From TrEMBL:
<feature type="domain" description="C2H2-type">
    <location>
        <begin position="254"/>
        <end position="281"/>
    </location>
</feature>
<feature type="domain" description="C2H2-type">
    <location>
        <begin position="142"/>
        <end position="169"/>
    </location>
</feature>
<feature type="domain" description="C2H2-type">
    <location>
        <begin position="478"/>
        <end position="505"/>
    </location>
</feature>
<feature type="domain" description="C2H2-type">
    <location>
        <begin position="198"/>
        <end position="225"/>
    </location>
</feature>
<keyword id="KW-0863">Zinc-finger</keyword>
<feature type="domain" description="C2H2-type">
    <location>
        <begin position="310"/>
        <end position="337"/>
    </location>
</feature>
<keyword id="KW-0804">Transcription</keyword>
<feature type="domain" description="C2H2-type">
    <location>
        <begin position="338"/>
        <end position="365"/>
    </location>
</feature>
<feature type="domain" description="C2H2-type">
    <location>
        <begin position="450"/>
        <end position="477"/>
    </location>
</feature>
<keyword id="KW-0862">Zinc</keyword>
<feature type="domain" description="C2H2-type">
    <location>
        <begin position="226"/>
        <end position="253"/>
    </location>
</feature>
<dbReference type="GO" id="GO:0008270">
    <property type="term" value="F:zinc ion binding"/>
</dbReference>
<protein>
    <submittedName>
        <fullName>Zinc finger protein 709-like</fullName>
    </submittedName>
</protein>
<feature type="domain" description="C2H2-type">
    <location>
        <begin position="86"/>
        <end position="113"/>
    </location>
</feature>
<keyword id="KW-0539">Nucleus</keyword>
<dbReference type="InterPro" id="IPR013087">
    <property type="entry name" value="Znf_C2H2_type"/>
</dbReference>
<keyword id="KW-0805">Transcription regulation</keyword>
Length: 505
């Protein structure tokens, strides 16, 4: 034993492969065999040369398949017999092959002996390092013999090959959904049970799938291994890089078969299809409201919790949504690269410029299906819809009063605090809301931008114009809930109600 095992301690590799000249990296896949050439033990040398000679000494009598390596034979045998003779002495988990147990033990010790020479990242398993290296080289050695599509990992090729025969033998006994692979079915079942086996050690967030945990962990480490070779932008996830690349090519391979709208990402197509079906699978467990998209549900939930996880590292202001933080951060730079070619007004975001341009064109592409009212901006339509649904998701924690809009809640809160942050620089009068200050400023300037189209009378405030218009139409939308009398203005019905309550102003 000393003679045979001695070189392992010295690092000496006395056995060289005469078929192929290369550096030693013992593994058990023929695809990777070329990278091995020098060996520390005669046993390693024997195993290595079998792919050259075609010798396969381990016979799988269950399926007539033969193997050049005993570990491969053991693992294959275990798939038929269910035998897993190698047990971890720390957690009791069992394995079909000895090498699999060795790799598993590293999850307890934290050992990561395989390091990437390019970026320094270390791995517990040599095959994981090999797969990682391909993120640097872009190598895709596994090619589909039906369509020619290539993959960096053999497992990904196997998943892809099933898409050609469309066979889905694994069916969920709860909802009937079928899958091509048993592992996909297992992951799907967790959507019914709510089970999340994979937990982040840093923040405690749990996931149904190990791959999702790995991607999430990069949010802590800041690692972005997938880089765009056109613009240099880096991503935590390979699929996100693929979608990003289409912003350069303009490619939109996923097309809706109902309206021909096309998308760069399959997930976006799936979400879009729900606009046709009306499906809203994501339901809020607090208020029962349902959504077509999980991210929309996540944003909605924040209206209940008040959580603002995204904080500006310059001024400390926090936001409920990451996109709102991004918008805010530009206010520190004061950069406004998007300029209107009609009036010269500049904006921090292209989307804001696009919405602004509609004030010139009069375009209102977003129409309410219930009343036909149209809006220049999609967010305005979303807010408007609450008039029909009666939804008031923003609730005051002090008095319980609820509002349709977050901005209205913010203004209302100031009635409790007495805060009036908007002050007139001419007379010193202060207001709870910026729009009130703007209207007030018109008393100094004499500006009256709201004009009645019927009689030409002008007003400083849009709400005053709206009340005036009712003198032409005779509309009286405000009704007393005690006697049924109707009024043109809300203030009139409030005054009238005092007759019933005998309240004196």
């Amino acid at each position: 034993h000393l003679q045979r095992d001695g070189p392992r301690n010295t690092g000496e590799k006395p056995f060289e492969c005469i078929q192929y000249d290369g550096a030693f990296a013992r593994n058990h896949h023929h695809h990777l065999h070329k990278s091995t050439g020098s060996f520390m033990s005669y046993t390693d040398h024997q195993i290595h040369t079998r792919p050259h000679t075609g010798e396969k000494v381990y016979d799988g009598n269950q399926c007539d398949k033969t193997f050049s390596c005993h570990n491969h034979f053991e693992i294959r045998k275990g798939t038929y017999t269910g035998e897993k003779p190698y047990e971890c002495n720390q957690c009791g988990k069992t394995f079909a092959g000895r090498s699999n147990l060795q790799i598993h033990k590293r999850t307890h010790t934290g050992e990561k002996p395989y390091e990437c020479k390019q970026c320094g990242k270390a791995f517990a398993c040599h095959s994981t390092l090999r797969n990682h290296k391909r993120t640097h080289t872009g190598e895709k050695p596994y090619e589909c013999n039906q369509c020619g599509k290539a993959f960096a990992q053999f497992g990904h090729l196997q998943c892809h090959e099933i898409t050609h025969n469309a066979e889905k033998p694994y069916e969920c006994n709860q909802c009937g959904k079928a899958y091509t692979r048993h592992s996909n079915l297992q992951r799907h079942k967790r959507t019914h049970t709510g089970e999340k086996l994979y937990e982040c050690k840093q923040c405690g967030k749990a996931f149904t799938c190990h791959r999702y945990l790995q991607i999430h962990e990069r949010s802590h480490t800041g690692e972005k291994p997938y880089e765009c070779n056109q613009c240099g932008k880096a991503f935590t996830c390979h699929s996100t890089l693929q979608v990003h690349k289409r912003t350069h090519t303009g490619e939109k391979p996923y097309e809706c078969n109902q309206c021909d709208k096309a998308f760069a990402c399959h997930r976006y197509l799936q979400i879009h299809k729900r606009t046709h079906t009306g499906e809203k699978p994501y339901e809020c467990n607090q208020c029962g409201k349902a959504f077509a998209c999980h991210s929309t549900l996540r944003k909605h939930k924040i209206t209940h919790t008040g959580e603002k996880p995204y904080e500006c590292n310059q001024c400390g202001k926090a936001f409920a949504q990451f996109v709102h933080l991004q918008c805010h951060e530009i206010t520190h730079t004061e950069e406004k690269p998007y300029e209107c070619n009609h009036c010269g007004k500049a904006f921090a975001f292209h989307s804001t410029l696009r919405n602004h341009k509609r004030t010139h064109t009069g375009e209102k592409p977003y129409e309410c299906k219930q009343c036909g009212k149209a809006f220049a901006c999609h967010s305005y339509l979303q807010i408007h819809k609450r008039i029909h649904t009666g939804e008031k998701p923003y609730e005051c924690k002090q008095c319980g009063k609820a509002f349709a809009f977050h901005s209205t809640l913010q203004v209302h809160k100031r009635t409790h605090t007495g805060e009036k942050p908007y002050e007139c620089n001419q007379c010193g009068k202060a207001f709870v809301c910026h729009s009130y200050l703007q209207i007030h400023n018109r008393t100094h300037t004499g500006e009256k931008p709201c004009v009645c189209k019927q009689c030409g009378k002008a007003f400083a405030c849009h709400s005053t114009l709206r009340n005036h218009k009712r003198t032409h139409t005779g509309e009286k939308p405000y009704e007393c809930n005690q006697c049924g009398k109707i009024f043109a203005r809300h203030s009139q019905v409030q005054i009238h109600k005092r007759i019933h309550t005998e309240e004196k102003p």
